[in-house]
Amino acid sequence: MQSQKCYLAPGLLKTGLLNGNQPIYIFILNQIKDVKEVSQQMNSYLQTINAFSPFTWVICNQQVLQLEISDLKQMLNPFYKNISLQQFQRIDKLIVISEKIQFQQLVNAIPSGWSSVLANKVHLVMKLNELANHNIELTKYQIEFLSRINNNYQEEIPFYGRDLSEYPIANTGVPECLEVILKYYEDHDDYLKTQGVFRISGSIQQEQKLVQQFAKRNYTTINEYEPDVVSTVFKNLLCQLKKPIFPFEMYDILKETQINTSKEKLLEMFEVFFAYMPEVNRKTTKRIAELLFHVADYESENLMGLNNLSIVFAPCFLRPQITDISDLKGAKVVVHHFNLLVQNVEYFLQDFKVNRNSSSQKKLSI
Fold it and tell me: In the prediction, which pLDDT does 156 show?
């Protein structure tokens, strides 16, 4: 198993696709160390990977450990708290693998808020090979892993979920993988003119293949992939950073900042944040902002001006440390302020060593 990466996250098994582009998420309870963390990761995947497609959810233990109803209940409650009902309504099947659980016990274990959504979608199977009855085909590596115990299993560092500084850095000061992606867009200018650019997700299978190549620093293969696949890797890499490009505190402060706050005051606030950000974060912000400006130049063709681009990319730069899915108003305020930041990124970065007291001499885009 060491030669094949199995996990998307600890306890969340990487699988193929079901019926085209429908993702399958297999959770191995005895391998999950932090249920809350994995549930939040699941919510992130649902928002970013084929965000409007149905999905199948499989819950099991490695097969020599029987899944008990008490284990299942302990798992479902954090998932119920951390995954929005809107996302969960996309579920096509919930499949539980256990010889010890009775079907009615399984139904009763479902949180009440999910009961109507899961009506006629819950399935109980006794053996791993019965997944084939639901058109789920696992690789031999996945079957081997699910069929044995390996409590000491340690996966190599996944490509997603690192700090920005943990990626190999190019001579531009930006992570190599991001520099390659940005260069890819320079070579595929026609893609930037397409309607809804950056809104459409690419194939999960192709995304995983590209990620595997990036993890090996084999960047030349990027030209073998469609732009939608590259954009999916681009957004997921940013959204799933261990710490966002802008610190968690910045999201919290911006959320509480009135939308009618003067631009000068907001820009002074941003400048303070930029002063304490790592250099790689500042340079990455500048490079991506340059791309967004270029995309916005084609607004008449792609319908993606800076406002729409801010809606797409604000979550890639800013997020709260604890997700509150009900705080739509706060999220909209953050997007509004992020739009202003992008428009004025040169204000912070063109001469970063200048003393902040001289900021009034800089030209603002307001």
Answer: 52
pLDDT computed for residue 240 by the predictor: 92
Apex 148 CA angle, 147 and 150, nearest 5: 140
Assign domain 164-361 to its CATH architecture.
Orthogonal Bundle (1.10)
Written in H, E and C, the secondary structure of the chain is: CCCCCCEEECCEECCCEECCCEEEEEEEHHHCCCHHHHHHHHHHHHHHCCCCCCEEEEEECCCCCCCCHHHHHHHHHHHHHHCCHHHHCCEEEEEEECCCCCHHHHHHHCCHHHHCCCCCCEEEECCHHHHHHHCCCCCHHHHHHHCCCCCCCCCCCCCCCCCHHHCCECCCCCEHHHHHHHHHHHHCHHHHCCCCCCCCCCCHHHHHHHHHHHHCCCHHHHHHCCHHHHHHHHHHHHHCCCCCCCCHHHHHHHHCCCCCCCHHHHHHHHHHHHHCCCHHHHHHHHHHHHHHHHHHCCHHHHCCCHHHHHHHHHHHHCCCCCCCCCCHHHHHHHHHHHHHHHHCHHHHHCCCCCCHHHHHHCCCCC
User: What residue ranges do the domains of the chain occupy?
Assistant: 7-146, 164-361
- In the prediction, which pLDDT does 223 show? 94
Successive 10-residue mean pLDDT values, the chain, 366 residues: 45 62 82 82 75 84 81 89 85 90 91 89 87 77 64 59 90 94 92 90 90 89 94 94 88 81 82 85 91 91 89 87 66 79 68 37 42
Single out the residue of 109, 67, 117, 60 nearest to residue 87, CA to CA. 117
pLDDT of residue 1: 29
Please state the separation of Cα 142 from the chain's center in Å: 23
Nearest to 304 by CA among 169, 203, 194, 190: 194
Measured distance CA(22)–CA(110) in Å, rounded: 23
Question: How far, in Å, CA of 341 to CA of 277, rounded?
Answer: 15
| Predicted model pTM | 0.55
To the question of domain 7-146 being in CATH 3.40.525, the answer is: yes
Q: Do the Cβ atoms of 233 and 207 come closer than 8 Å?
A: yes
